[in-house]
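Our working data are protein records whose layout never changes between entries. The record below serves as our worked example for the rest of this section:
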Amino acid sequence: MNKKIVALVVILVIAGGAVGAYVLLGGLPSGENTIVVGTTDAVEASIDPAQSWDYFGWSMISCLGAGLVEIIPGTSARSEDIRGALAESWHVSDDGKTWTFDLRQGLTFADGTPFNATVVKYSFDRNMGMALPDGPQVGIGYGDIIDSVTVVDTYTVKFDLKISFAPFLQLMACAASYMVHPKYAPLDHYVGYNASKSVRECHPNGLGPFTLTKWTREGGEDVMMRLEKNPNYWNSSLPKVDVIIKFYSSEAALYNALTTGEIDVAYRHLTPDQLNELKGNSQFKVWEGIGAAIQYLCFQQRIYPLNITEVRRAIAAAINRTAVAETVFHGTVDPLYSIIPAGMAYHKPSFQKYGNANYTYTRQTLANYGYDENHKLVLDLYYESSGHYPHSEAQATVYKNSLEGSGVITVKLHALEWAQYRQARNAGTMPLMIYGWYPDYIDPDNYAFLPFAGWLNMGYNKTYPAGGVAQYALWLAGRSSTESADRQAAYYALQDLQADECSIVPLWQGKTTAASKANIGGIVLDITVQFRYWLLYWES
């Protein structure tokens, strides 16, 4: 779109086959009913709550579905920051193991199917019962938390828990706890994209702020999605506009699409340099907020010498987090010294004891295992190359430089696209890999398990070795207690143990950023790291 237009002009914009009329006066839109969002993200496998466990997949589930409760935008996701969505109210038993929800009445799916307690039970029984190995219900441990879901009456549903679980409302607010439409959600398999079926048959969601009316792919790659306002959404004041999502293969292409007017909002991922350029242009807004996303380094401990704790410590000490934060991200991330992010309850920066680029420690420790300037420790470091994580190659290069700065380590870099990266993770073939985490539910419980997460397949988990067993016990103590002091004691001890064991090493904690045309409103970037498409609107 030509931003130099000063006269009254009517422009027809074709976006993924959808035509919208844009009326501009002095360069500003009037009467808009559609906002186009661009991203380098894509659907990893599906947008089915029983299977999807990637950032963008959850974003679409949040657009097309709804949960019993939701986190109030702009808050820190404490218990008091959670409000009803499909549920109007709830109460919990004294022992913290029974939760009863009173549902909103009169809600329906788009085809008129009523929402009631039976739908809630079906959704949880189906998603948990499928127990997909790579799905969120298994990964998060729903089966370890929820014992049963019972229909009390048409609009009352009861959850009986196996444990007293402190962050249960936070769990109910995450996308894996959203409702599914029984008609489109088979009990025995998840639902994914199928070009031969209608778009409605490509996902099982419903009751959300939008309905999905178009989803196009070319060569297996997402091209465009169209989200239209759902007139049956429980919050009748939202959304304000329809949304078109366009997918781009690179940060450069995304930036070009924003600056040429092809899209109205760019979210995930623009580079720090691109964001800085936009900050100096009055035609755009740059949005910044707290982030809960983290990135960390994983050791494959079935491979010698990474199975030796002291060697992992030596590698951890040689990493220069500050260099990554300053040179790659230009201050848009912060160095991280615990798996629990800074700013979250019970955070303790236990990894600070190793410092940054602490080469004296690295050299002295590795010397005990025969490594020196003449016999260097050779490390194969893998990173993903398809844009799933921001600036992966630049990050990997800084880590290589900082590790080799010790004088006793040589690093070989290897790049894999995301699908192959996950396959290699599952096969356990990457000695060192860079991985990231976006929160499922906003509580330390959802981070503290990562160093012994079985799905990372590092040869270090809750059953082996002794350090993993001990970490698991402390994690259970932290998540089960209803007393804040007891939770803090467990999480502090856990973070200290994680720093001692170094099964994974925290690298950085992100900040959340987006960019838009100057007359876009409604972007809220908070600790949930959730992009709420349904809050977008055109400012007058």
User: Anything to note?
Assistant: The first helix runs from residue 55 to 64.
